[in-house]
Amino acid sequence: MENKLKVAFICVHNSCRSQIAEALGKYFAGDIFESYSAGTEAKPQINQDAVRLMKELYDIDMEKTQYSKLLDKIPAVDIVITMGCNVECPYLPCKYREDWGLDDPTGKSDEEFKKVISIIEAKIKELKERLKS
């Protein structure tokens, strides 16, 4: 069994977009890559709207297996995906990186949240296909 690639989803706070990406990465692409998330600042808890909507949409309880953490708490990774934090984007050494340019839905409506979640789902599936080939 060859080692799976490790993918880190990174944003400043590691409480919302990167957590959703970690959860959906595990859910949709766990057979292809390992998912991690981290940020340059940790929050005491994952965004509660994100937690609620992920339960509602996918029956995933992010608080069971995930928590907000700093970059030095994850293993060395092959791929870094930044969520769209412009100049503040944390740097992590990796073989490949890309930015998904997602707006932070924190404090916005469920509709906005669901939009971001569905974009993340599509991007995870697309990443999985690219890494398969």
UniProtKB/TrEMBL annotation:
Record has Ligase as a keyword: no
Phylogenetic placement of the source organism: Bacteria, Bacillati, Bacillota, Clostridia, Lachnospirales
Protein name, UniProt field: Phosphotyrosine protein phosphatase I domain-containing protein
PANTHER family given in the database record: ARSENATE REDUCTASE
UniProt keyword list: Arsenical resistance
Lineage top rank: taxon: Bacteria
GO-annotated biological processes: response to arsenic-containing substance
Phosphotyrosine protein phosphatase I domain residues: 5-130
Pfam families: LMWPc (PF01451)
Record-linked InterPro entries: Ptyr_pPase, Ptyr_pPase_sf
